[in-house]
Amino acid sequence: MIRLAANLSMLFTEHAFLDRFAAAADAGFHGVEYLFPYAHEPMALKAALQESDLRQVLFNLPPGDWDAGERGLASLPGREAEFRDAVVEALRYAEALDCQRVHAMAGLLPADADAVVRAAHHATYLNNLRFAANEAAKVGCQVLIEPINTRDMPGYFLSRQAQAMAVLEAVGADNLRLQFDLYHCQVMEGDLIRHLERQFGAIGHIQIAGVPQRHEPDRGEIHYPAIFERLESLGYAGWVGCEYRPAGGTRQGLEWGREHGLTPDAARNTRSNG
Ligand SMILES: O=C(O)[C@H](O)C(=O)CO
Ligand SMILES: [Mg+2]
């Protein structure tokens, strides 16, 4: 059974953030994820989860100055103290929300990064992830790392599957896992089912979207029914985060998820696929 989580940073944006929980539950979701919880008190988020009987399945560590273009701290030399504070803050929220996964964004390489700079980022990344995994293990939480495509996020330090698998191997923490976003993998490498099979033991969370437009999964070049079939046959018991920008209204675009328990609006516009 595929368990779908609504990404409330992208879905149901027709509503104010705290109202998106009820909208997601009404549409058949049983879990939610989003980028960052930190603009809200933990208790307000916990109340929204409880009122709609939803699980909090994932959110990100504080990413540095997002509005200034920063995209995570984990690999940034010289920002280790800030990263450690981010881990503590994220785990405070994870405990309050009973969330068992937090995503540590890697950060950006300088545009002129040479091999020495890359090596410094790599060493910082490993040390920071060791700290994060150790702290997260104390509260039963997983830390996730996610390769992100460099078309959407130029310069992002972690962009390929093999790189992520090597980092997981080097750190060697059981609760450090892969956030396997099929949208990013398709943009960078393709070969999705083989990547899924090879990396299955390391996966802590999966996310989906259509490619190339990052709309609903039934738009674009990925045939998700085959992905879902392989996930079922592999016995995947985790969550699948729906991290896409609806092409129209969120509820109208949920037809693709009907067989997985979602309830699209009846008044769904007819639309071409693509
Ligand atoms: O963008 C993504 O795919 C990641 O999941 C994320 O949370 C950072 O933007
Ligand atoms: Mg993602």
Which short descriptors sum up this protein?
single chain; 274 residues; alpha/beta; TIM Barrel; 8 strands; binds the ligand O=C(O)[C@H](O)C(=O)CO; binds magnesium ion; isomerase; HyI-like; Hydroxypyruvate isomerase
Average the pLDDT over all residues and give the rounded result: 96
Q: Which structural class best describes the helix and strand composition?
A: alpha/beta
Order of helices and strands: EHEHEHEHEHEHHEHE
**Hey, roughly how much beta strand do the residues contain?**
5-15%
- The oligomeric state is single chain
Count of folded domains: 1
Q: Sum up the overall morphology in one term.
A: globular
Q: Could you say what the CATH architecture is?
A: Alpha-Beta Barrel
Low-confidence stretches: 268-274
Q: Largest sheet, described in full?
A: 8 strands, parallel, barrel
Rg estimate, integer Å? 18 Å
Distance between the termini: 27 Å
CATH superfamily: Divalent-metal-dependent TIM barrel enzymes
Q: Which ligands appear in the coordinates?
A: the ligand O=C(O)[C@H](O)C(=O)CO, magnesium ion
Number of strands: 8
GO molecular function: hydroxypyruvate isomerase activity
Keywords: Isomerase, Pyruvate
GO biological process, one term: glyoxylate metabolic process
InterPro entries: HPT_OtnI_isomerases, Hydroxypyruvate_isomerase, HyI-like, Sugar_Epim/Isomerase, Xyl_isomerase-like_sf, Xyl_isomerase-like_TIM-brl
